[in-house]
């Protein structure tokens, strides 16, 4: 089999990073390289042509997930005519929805990667990226009246608890109660 073009190699790398970003949010960073490459539609052997290690991929996939989150914030702001408060409220409503609860692969990296990042050493790049992403998200949620860290912690905690209790009435109640609390406080 011949060598792939540079453009194809870049496309393959992009596909692996996007796939890893989704799988890590859905299943955690313990996903095997073989399973990840299969999900990307590529062979296991090609992994180390693209990445120095799985840790390097975790770094890139984490950055990709937070880049998606930042794009989502910017898109929300545009959709609401630059009205930050309206964009924040729409984000809160979406964040604390059954759809977000049920779709971790496409969801917030703060909630999906928290346990994995807690296990990473402080010197790991993915943990640094995660920490900066959390700080940026909290800053984006800050209003004149509310601290962004408090809002993010409420959203994060509610989402994690709703996912853990999914299938019970408590899950919906958690989402509804947190959304109501953030709306009333805003």
Break the fold down into its secondary structure elements and pairings.
Elements: H1 6-27, H2 33-40, H3 47-50, H4 54-79, H5 84-95, H6 98-101, H7 109-119, H8 125-141, H9 148-164, H10 169-185
Helix pairs in contact: 1-2, 1-4, 4-5, 4-8, 7-8, 8-9, 9-10
Summary tags:
10 helices, 74% helix
What count of helical segments does DSSP give? 10
What would the principal axes of the Cα set say about the shape? globular
How many β strands by DSSP? 0
Radius of gyration: 18 Å
Q: What's the main sheet like?
A: none
Q: Summed up, what is this model?
A:
This protein is mostly helical and 186 residues long.
Question: Could you explain how this protein is built, in words?
Answer:
With 186 residues, the chain is mainly α. 74% of the residues lie in helices and 0% in strands. It has 10 helices and no strands. Helix 1 packs across helix 4 and helix 4 crosses helix 5. It is globular. The chain starts with 5 loop residues before the first helix and ends with a helix. The relative contact order is 0.11. The model has no long low-confidence stretch (mean pLDDT 93).
